[in-house]
């Protein structure tokens, strides 16, 4: 069954809309702002509380006041659009025959000037790698080399170690000509959380073709620093078993 209500004129329609409009029944106890839904009130009142309730991304450590903002952050690949714009410019306006090194920097990192002279040793057609401090819940995330210290055979990562390349964006540089040899390679907008680096590198190289730098991957020349306190839950787990990610290193 249904009913039809006849509205005689515009004034009647306005009165009817006002009567049918939901009342603001939920009031903030801090500033008396009114809301029509309890969920909106709950989110609003969090902005008044101290200490502030925050939610952090387990990959990059960024904090959010609302859980919904964290969810949105997780599904959006961080920096993919900017990096792809840079790759497009490089392929369009630079000489493919000229040797160069491509490195993706981040304003949240701290760099030693020695890192840039070190990455200049990257050989044509290769991807070079090195340790990064304070990342992946460890003091140091680093390549593991063979006995001869000439070849990368793995990484010491504890966060999603099953990734083919379980490293941070700050941990590698690319010979420019390699990007021209693979003009279709870009950062994926559909990569799962923490898989941006892996999916990109899988289309350029293999684990055994990586070139280890930074004194056989023993020097830490870049740190994933932020204004928030660094979380080292992975490091805590190693120490419980008598191990350290920075064994023999000065971080």
From TrEMBL:
Localization, UniProt: Golgi apparatus membrane; Membrane; Nucleus
Site (Interaction with galactose moiety of substrate glycoprotein) location in chain: 141
One of the record's GO molecular function terms: DNA binding
Family: Belongs to the glycosyltransferase 43 family.
SMART domains (UniProt xref): ZnF_C2H2
E.C. code: 2.4.1.135
GO cellular component assignments: Golgi membrane; nucleus
Pathway: Protein modification; protein glycosylation
GO biological process: carbohydrate metabolic process; chondroitin sulfate proteoglycan biosynthetic process; periodic partitioning by pair rule gene
Short name of any one Pfam family annotated for the protein: zf-C2H2
Active site (catalytic residues): 197 (proton donor/acceptor)
Residue ranges occupied by any C2H2-type domain in the UniProt entry: 26-53, 55-82
Name of the protein this chain belongs to: Galactosylgalactosylxylosylprotein 3-beta-glucuronosyltransferase
Record keywords: Developmental protein, DNA-binding, Glycoprotein, Golgi apparatus, Manganese, Membrane, Metal-binding, Nucleus, Pair-rule protein, Repeat, Signal-anchor, Transcription, Transcription regulation, Transferase, Transmembrane, Transmembrane helix, Zinc, Zinc-finger
Topology term for the membrane: Single-pass type II membrane protein
Catalysed reactions, semicolon-separated: 3-O-(beta-D-galactosyl-(1->3)-beta-D-galactosyl-(1->4)-beta-D-xylosyl)-L-seryl-[protein] + UDP-alpha-D-glucuronate = 3-O-(beta-D-GlcA-(1->3)-beta-D-Gal-(1->3)-beta-D-Gal-(1->4)-beta-D-Xyl)-L-seryl-[protein] + UDP + H(+)
Cofactor: Mn(2+)
